UniProtKB/TrEMBL annotation:
<dbReference type="InterPro" id="IPR008907">
    <property type="entry name" value="TPP/p25"/>
</dbReference>
<keyword id="KW-0963">Cytoplasm</keyword>
<dbReference type="GO" id="GO:0046785">
    <property type="term" value="P:microtubule polymerization"/>
</dbReference>
<keyword id="KW-0206">Cytoskeleton</keyword>
<dbReference type="Pfam" id="PF05517">
    <property type="entry name" value="p25-alpha"/>
</dbReference>
<feature type="region of interest" description="Disordered">
    <location>
        <begin position="129"/>
        <end position="154"/>
    </location>
</feature>
<feature type="compositionally biased region" description="Basic and acidic residues">
    <location>
        <begin position="134"/>
        <end position="154"/>
    </location>
</feature>
<dbReference type="GO" id="GO:0005874">
    <property type="term" value="C:microtubule"/>
</dbReference>
<dbReference type="GO" id="GO:0032273">
    <property type="term" value="P:positive regulation of protein polymerization"/>
</dbReference>
<protein>
    <recommendedName>
        <fullName>Tubulin polymerization-promoting protein family member 3</fullName>
    </recommendedName>
</protein>
<dbReference type="GO" id="GO:0015631">
    <property type="term" value="F:tubulin binding"/>
</dbReference>
<dbReference type="GO" id="GO:0001578">
    <property type="term" value="P:microtubule bundle formation"/>
</dbReference>
<dbReference type="InterPro" id="IPR011992">
    <property type="entry name" value="EF-hand-dom_pair"/>
</dbReference>
<comment type="similarity">
    <text>Belongs to the TPPP family.</text>
</comment>
<keyword id="KW-0493">Microtubule</keyword>
Length: 177
C-alpha cells in the first residue's frame, strides 16, 4: 500500500517537471532539459557520484532510439540506472527507495528568475513627470502613455499649423471688427 502511494507522488513530480516551461506539454513525456532539471532540483546530481553528464547519458540510454522524450516507464528505468550510482553504500532496492524519496512531491523551482529592478536610477529614468521635449507629449498628466496618439503625429485638418496656440480663434477675431 505504501509503495503505491509513493508511486503516485513520484508520478505527480514527473508530470510537474514534464510540463515545466512548455505550454504544449501534456505531462505524459519528459524532454532531456526537464529531466536534467528534475535531477538537479531534487539533488539527484551530487557532483561526485552523479554528474550532469551521467544524467544525460542515462537519458539517452533509456529513451527510444528515434525519440527526444521519455515516458514515465522509461523515467523509472532511468531512476533504476542512477540509484546505485547515487547511493553506492546501499543495496539496489534501498538505493531506489532513497532516490524516490529525493524526487517524491517535489516540483520545479524558479530560482534564478529575473526580478524587476527597484533602484533609484530606474525610478528616475521611468518618472514621466521629468520628461521634456517630444517625449513629454507621449504621456498624459498622470504618467499614463497616450499610445499611438503620443507616438505618431496625427494630422488635424483644421487649416492651422500643428501646435498653433490660437487655433479656432479666427472667427472671434473677425466678429470683433
Amino acid at each position: 500500500m505504501a509503495e503505491g502511494a509513493d508511486m503516485t507522488f513520484l508520478l505527480v513530480s514527473f508530470k510537474k517537471f514534464a510540463i515545466h516551461g512548455d505550454t504544449k506539454a501534456t505531462g505524459k513525456e519528459m524532454n532531456g532539459k526537464n529531466w536534467a532539471k528534475l535531477c538537479k532540483d531534487c539533488k539527484v546530481i551530487d557532483g561526485k557520484n552523479v554528474t550532469s553528464t551521467d544524467v544525460d547519458i542515462v537519458f539517452s540510454k533509456v529513451k527510444a532510439k528515434n525519440s527526444r522524450v521519455i515516458t514515465y516507464e522509461e523515467f523509472e528505468k532511468a531512476l533504476q540506472e542512477l540509484a546505485p550510482k547515487r547511493f553506492k553504500d546501499q543495496s539496489k532496492e534501498e538505493a531506489l527507495q532513497s532516490i524516490h524519496k529525493l524526487i517524491e512531491g517535489k516540483e520545479p523551482s524558479n530560482t534564478g528568475i529575473t526580478k524587476i529592478a527597484k533602484t533609484a536610477a530606474v525610478d528616475r529614468l521611468t518618472d514621466t513627470s521629468k520628461y521634456t521635449g517630444s517625449h513629454r507629449e507621449r504621456f498624459d498628466e498622470s504618467g499614463k502613455g497616450k499610445g499611438r496618439g503620443g507616438r505618431e503625429e496625427l494630422v488635424e485638418n483644421t487649416g492651422y499649423v500643428a501646435a498653433y496656440k490660437n487655433a479656432g480663434t479666427y472667427e472671434e477675431k473677425t466678429k470683433a471688427k
